[in-house]
Amino acid sequence: MLKGMTLFSFMLSLLVFLLILHNGVHCFGEKKLLKLQQHFQWKQQRDASSCLSQKSRKEKGATILEMKHRENCYGGVEDWNKLLQKRLILDDLRVQSLQARIKNMDSAKTEDVSDTRIPLTSGVEIGTLNYIVTVELGGRNMTVIVDTGSDLTWVQCQPCKSCYDQKEPLFNPSASPSYQTVLCNSSTCQSAFATGNTRNCGNNLTTCNYVVSYGDGSYTRGELAHDHLNLGNTPVDNFVFGCGRNNKGLFGGASGLMGLGQGSISLVSQTSAMFGGFFSYCLPSTQAGASGSLVLGGNSSVYNTSSPISYTRMIPNSQLSTFYFLNLTGVNVGGVTLQDSSFGKAVTIIDSGTVITRLPPTIYKAVKAEFLKQFSGFPTAPAFSILDTCFNLSAYQDVDVPIIKLQFEGNAEMNVDITGVFYFVKTDASQVCLALASLSFKDEIGIIANYQQRNQRVTYDTKESKLGFAQESCSFT
Fold it and tell me: Which CDD domains does the UniProt record give (predicted)?
């Protein structure tokens, strides 16, 4: 009897072991199945016209705007491989500029902030600022890029001295009866530049001119104005925005940018009496037809979350007040909690514009080592740009991928969605890379980027200075 039970136990253990070694992959710890074929949709025809008039609704006191990934709005793309690779290269250039700007701000604490420009807004290069919504400004629909790393909302305006190509007609101030310019000597103009925008009145006090420059040489120049803004069916009177007369950069055909930073001129601050300084989003994937939502207002009952919201405090930074800073306290890979002396000291920015998350060098090294330990047995592929942990998965239909969890002060946790673990450098999966990268230097600021925020409800409560995470399968409906 005892021998029989021992044999049964041995056979059961052997069966479990064989299942674990399925397809030659060491499959231990917490993992999820990634179906590679679901990512081979790059050549599907995209309906660019569907991005020009996105949906909105009002529910339980919250205003909800449909959010889409900008790649769904390109229409026909001739070379997806080139686009995916270019996105990484430009993302790296953007982060380098951002880090340089942060260092300059830190070394210029004693300077008069009116003599400086705003910190680099996140990801303005083509292929980096990815998510768009539609708003109505002065009676016209405008598709704008959503950016938590920028304060000023702006659109291209007629007459335009120099404008990039956009899909919609340019905003025409003369066609809007509610349009008014902001005077240069007004309190609105002065407060708008308290965070460092460049202001130049000269002898003309009738307009509040602005310049916002970006790290890649892109910029917008024009004047500040008031106009009537509709966020879905929610009206906002006397909304202050930038009317861009001279704009340079590849903004993917969008009409402009929506600033969701913490500065006084941001949309969040301007609508604080209406929405309480509270907004959230769920960033969708790049799959054709995928959509998410930008929710203005703090009623969590409108979310479709599948896990409770866990909160962490926002770390104040008076020199970089636009950005949202968090304290990264841990990373868990496949059920293994990593150890590193940088945890608890790793202040990071959470950003809707940057594509790939950047971690302090020692933390990234630990993540990479544990990931390779658990995701073993697969053929490797060459590194590409900022991504140095790559595989050739072209021979596989699906793979088990270790779950990655980012942990923050206050026991908050963000479970990285399965679609945010790997970045496809090539559409045939012959070069698939871990979608995380190391900072170049240990004193740089980490960034939690949009690729890892996919299918998460990320909530921003600026009044209570806290930020929350919950899992959600993004959909506008």
Answer: cnd41_like
